[in-house]
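Hi V.,

You were right to ask for the full record rather than a summary. Here it is.
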Amino acid sequence: MTSYVFITGGVVSSLGKGITSACLGAILEARGLSISMIKLDPYLNVDPGTMSPFQHGEVFVTHDGTETDLDLGHYERFVRTVTGRNSNFTTGRIYESVIGKERRGDYLGATVQVIPHITDEIKESVKRGAGDADICLVEIGGTVGDIESLPFLEAIRQMGIELGHDRVVYVHLTLVPYIATSSEIKTKPTQHSVKELRSIGIQPDILVCRSEEPLPDEQRKKIALFTNVQEPAVISAYDVDDLYKIPAMMHEQGLDDIVARQLRLDLPPADLGEWQAIVEAKQNPTSEANIAMVGKYVDLKDSYISLVEALLHGGIHTQTRVNIHFVEAQEIENRGLECLRGIDGIVVPGGFGDRGIEGKILAVQFARENGIPYLGICLGMQVAVIEAARHLAGLDGAMSTEFDRLTPHPVIGLITEWQTSSGDLELRDEGSDLGGTMRLGAQEVTLVEGSLAATTYGSTTIEERHRHRFEVNNNYRQELEKTGLRFSGLSVDDLVEMVEIPDHPWFLASQFHPEFTSNPRDGHPLFKGFITAARQHHEGAMPRAAEA
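Predicted structure:
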């Protein structure tokens, strides 16, 4: 029978509820429990798929093709769980479901209201997402006091009553600021946040207090007194230089013991050896590599959070300090390529829209002509094909129809049909809705024997997650192959999945998003290979290219 831990946040947003949830999940998993994780988002979008990365950061894609909140990426990096459609529910999706039921007459003529119909739908969704896990951790997005999150808070309050105190734990994350001008730590914001939560019927069992430095005992006692929380349950979540240190930090303060005790669970001690090994590997590199990430959303680092972490995972598993330099693609267009001098590897990530596209193409050309390791992801593969078409095949004006519908050489075009992992045929055209209509989720990819791709993966059959509408135009494949570009990965329905240049030291690009399946404990072969090549470039000892 599944027990639930509900994680809420107060005072301000962006305190780290997702990281807190993921780290608690990691510790409980290390004590032998099976974990499921859910994010409840209060915005009205059905999913974040159509939202700008500047609005909400990265869109994380699950194995089953659901476009979700970036916090699910944290969950999969910290906990050995595979999230999916029932791991992320928004207000928009909840209301869509309720309205659909009302239209079908499922409510038998009743007046449909927030309570009980919306809250019942939330509770049913949470239980569905929990599955048969021992513990389900449920993060409620937004900040306590916001109007948008009230139905979710009411639903979890009801679950506490219905399931009982020994099956539900409430964790509240707050901010304890330090006022430098008066040299004081202020607990009042936390007191008021808990007061707000209690006013809607939820008494937190645990407080996780975010602060710059460890919380002194005096402040912990004061917070416990004024919030009706036991002092040991006031956890100090102070700033650390490595987020992979957080599971040990929370475990040392007994967070998992408090949860286990309330849920009446008799558990073995936590084995955090894997996390200790990760921290030690990051702290003791034997070399380094400077990586340029050439993108269009670089002003908000959360836009590329899974990719950043995947590069760091590559560093962990190759004992390499990875220094990531974020380069705005438009800056290359405006100021030239000088910003790429001294770089050991270039990454061009995914993205949508034509802003900065020429800067990305220039970055690819720079990597190709100067023998710099190159990793292209999604759009990064497409611009690699465009660059080869223009400068190797002599196809002047080659472009993607996403950016220029009148291009004389549409080497990249809209996918009008493709086969899903279940064998179903999906059809699209330019008039299709934007939301939820891309090629999404895990798809099988066949790699060419002896290619750099196959060598890097150590296999000729892989499965990776996708999120794209445009694809290489197969009508140009033969012409491009004559230039030396190798299409080393294909889907089951003959769509191009990977390209490489065999006579380049290390040049590999994928249509899929490998960053979504990388985690610190296992890493990912593509990022290990790329960081190894960048490290060797830094050391002046480049790897040999794959056999053509």
